[in-house]
Amino acid sequence: MKGGKILVKGSAGNYAGSGYRGEKCGMRGGEILVEGSAGAFLGEHLCGGSIRIGGDAGDFPGAMNQGGEIFIGGSAHLPGAEMTKGRIVVEGQARVLPSYQLQENVEMEGKSYQKLTGDLVENGKGELYIAL
Hints:
Layout (H helix, E strand, L loop, with lengths): L4 E4 L22 E4 L15 E4 L12 E7 L3 E2 L7 E6 L3 E2 L5 E8 L2 E8 L7 E6 L1
């Protein structure tokens, strides 16, 4: 996907917004809005664009993110594995990989978040924000 907008009125399954099998770059632009929850590997290999989930996300949302943005309205499990660039915001609870480094607490749009950077395994400069 290089542009445009997709609105999912319910929930999305696994690999929403991800690249095809073997691709190094998935979604490059545009916007995906999911009113419900999403499955595992949401936005894997994301290179651009944005994904917004109203509910929870499954395992490894934003895995290998290379420059896109993901907003998760609920909880997530191990977001941003092998992320090198980009940003992931989790409004609910999240189990975070130990390869992320806590930076500081920040305020965004009137809410408090823990800001972490990583994935340090990949010398990543991605930003992960977890609501406090």
